[in-house]
Amino acid sequence: MDATAQIGVTGLAVMGRNLARNLARNGFTVAVHNRSEARTRDLVDGFGDEGSFVPAYSAEDFVASLERPRRLVVMVKAGGPTDAVIEEFAPLLEEGDIIVDGGNAHFLDTRRREAELRERGIHFVGAGVSGGEEGALNGPSIMPGGSAESYRSLAPMLERIAARAPDGTACVSHVGPDGAGHFVKMVHNGIEYADMQLIAEAYQLLRSVAGYSPERIAETFRSWNTGRLDSYLIEITAEVLAHRDGATGEPFVDVVQDRAEQKGTGRWTVQTALDLGVPVPGIAEAVFARSLSGGAELREASRALPGPVPEPLGEEEAARFADRVEQALYASKLVSYTQGFLQITAGSAEYGWDV
């Protein structure tokens, strides 16, 4: 197979598929590979008109299709699956080639992998990718950590496919060596846990104290999103609160399962903060709230306990209360970001990253 692809993506679940499509849409020739050949065929058959793809159905063909230095992006589950893919491809690579892990790996795993592959002359980049499925396709925020040499090779591609800040700056930067990128992505997720918890608490205050309906709260959030609270999370919260369940006609927030899951990055943030001796109470309480939501039966039982039932506020008083909630939400967001940035600073000092 001719070496015609500028970059390759292995692991074509939704995130990997969309990242490959993003690269192809931006003019790069992309080698694509998956353990299941069907996913490779589905990508090329369904989206082959979006750009130039080189399908590969074996590890050997995939590596052979890549130009030197080879740039190989791994988009599989963190942990054992990532190690397995690295061990499959590393023996086929040469000195100076680059493996990029775009998953939510623990930064200590990334440090270990980077050190092991460095001894073999292979660059290893742990790149946090933020923005979910839509971001992967249309422009994510990317947090790569690894050698400066590897970033110079990847930068033109990453800057092309990344999201753009309002001033046009690409949302990608070389965070630092070895695990720095995945560390920053981990803390980024921890801050997001806190952000979501704060929004949930603001909703609960507006509903329980101000007496607002979900639709009214959606209007309030839309109003907030035009000011200093402007953000993706506020925007989608308003959309969710305005949505009604198709089967029952009830507000969707009243019928959705009352339980939240977690992928682990928020928990890692808190555990690492304890190791570093950095207080992140807002992030920690958000992680505990996720765990609390899993005890649905216990929470249901507690609803029958006696206690005060607040009377809804009058219209004018409720409006004043909503303004105070907005102020509290804004202040709390600042605190959460500060806690996260302090943790990044401490991690950078501990591991010599100079983030």
What is the spatial order of strands in the main beta sheet? Answer: 3-2-1-4-5-6-7
Percentage of β-strand residues: 5-15%
In round numbers, the mean pLDDT is 94
* Helix residue percentage: 55-70%
Catalogue the unreliable spans: none
The helix-and-strand class reads alpha/beta
Protein name: 6-phosphogluconate dehydrogenase, decarboxylating
Domain 6-phosphogluconate dehydrogenase C-terminal: 181-355
Pathway: Carbohydrate degradation; pentose phosphate pathway; D-ribulose 5-phosphate from D-glucose 6-phosphate (oxidative stage): step 3/3
Family: Belongs to the 6-phosphogluconate dehydrogenase family.
What is this structure's SSE topology?
Elements: E1 7-10, H1 14-25, E2 30-33, H2 37-47, E3 53-55, H3 59-64, E4 71-74, H4 80-89, E5 98-101, H5 107-119, E6 123-130, H6 132-138, E7 141-145, H7 148-161, H8 180-208, H9 214-224, H10 232-242, H11 252-255, H12 265-276, H13 281-293, H14 296-302, H15 315-351
Parallel strand pairs: 1-2, 1-4, 2-3, 4-5, 5-6
Antiparallel strand pairs: 6-7
Helix pairs in contact: 1-6, 8-12, 8-13, 8-15, 9-10, 12-13
Description:
The protein is of the alpha/beta class and 355 residues long. Helices cover 55% and strands 9% of the residues. It has 15 helices and seven strands. The protein has helices spanning 14-25, 37-47, 59-64, 80-89, 107-119, 132-138, 148-161, 180-208, 214-224, 232-242, 252-255, 265-276, 281-293, 296-302, 315-351, and strands spanning 7-10, 30-33, 53-55, 71-74, 98-101, 123-130, 141-145. A seven-stranded mixed β-sheet has the order 3-2-1-4-5-6-7, sandwiched between helices. α1 (14-25) links the parallel β1 and β2 (30-33). The model has no long low-confidence stretch (mean pLDDT 94). This is 6-phosphogluconate dehydrogenase, decarboxylating. Its EC number is 1.1.1.44.
